[in-house]
Give the backbone structure.
Amino acid sequence: MIIKKAEFVISNTDPVKCPQDRRPEYAFIGRSNVGKSSLINMLTGKKGLAMTSSTPGKTQLINHFLINDEWYIVDLPGYGYAQRGKKGRDKIREIIDTYLDEREAMTCLFLLLDCRHEPQKIDLEFITRLGESGIPFAIIFTKIDKISSSKLKENVEKYKVKLMETWEELPPIFTASSEHKIGKEEILNYIENINKGEL
Ligand code: GTP
Ligand code: MG
């Protein structure tokens, strides 16, 4: 799929105030700093569309971007940012949970994981929560420019083994680098197939 048009629509914390036109939407979630906003910019080919920062905790709202006048990309705040304090963390978590529980237009959630790390408790717990709520999701390993391809293979395999402990079937898994523009075609094709009703 080619993205001809990508425009910012609205930012807020309340799913009720999100666009109500029922176009399908694809949301990006993961720990703070994992690279959600950068990935959205890479996928859309618009560098400044989603705000990025080297300091975790940049995205604090639910951000809707309309793509090709047909579907939405949603940039969500990251979870688990330690320096935000318990109160701040809980608030962000509530925004995320309300969005996931109430947003009917949410078609597929992309869960981003930093490819350099071993499976982390906070992410595994989040995946379990998605399973319990029956939320459709796919995994994207980010920042793959930061490790060798053999290390990447090893880390992805470790994750698969970990997931197979609790899941009968693995979710779709993608690998990406916003820095080197890797993974764009695969992720956009996946979205296109869902939009066409082929997945
Ligand atoms: P929050 O909004 O704080 O939750 O973070 P985020 O997940 O949106 O992360 P963001 O896209 O702001 O990126 C965080 C940092 O990681 C920035 O310094 C990016 O430049 C860097 N980064 C993101 N993706 C990549 C990547 O693919 N490769 C490399 N090398 N750096 C990346
Ligand atoms: Mg962000």
Summary: The two ends are 15 Å apart (CA to CA). Residues 6-189 form a domain with the Rossmann fold fold (CATH 3.40.50.300). The first strand starts at residue 6 and ends at 12.
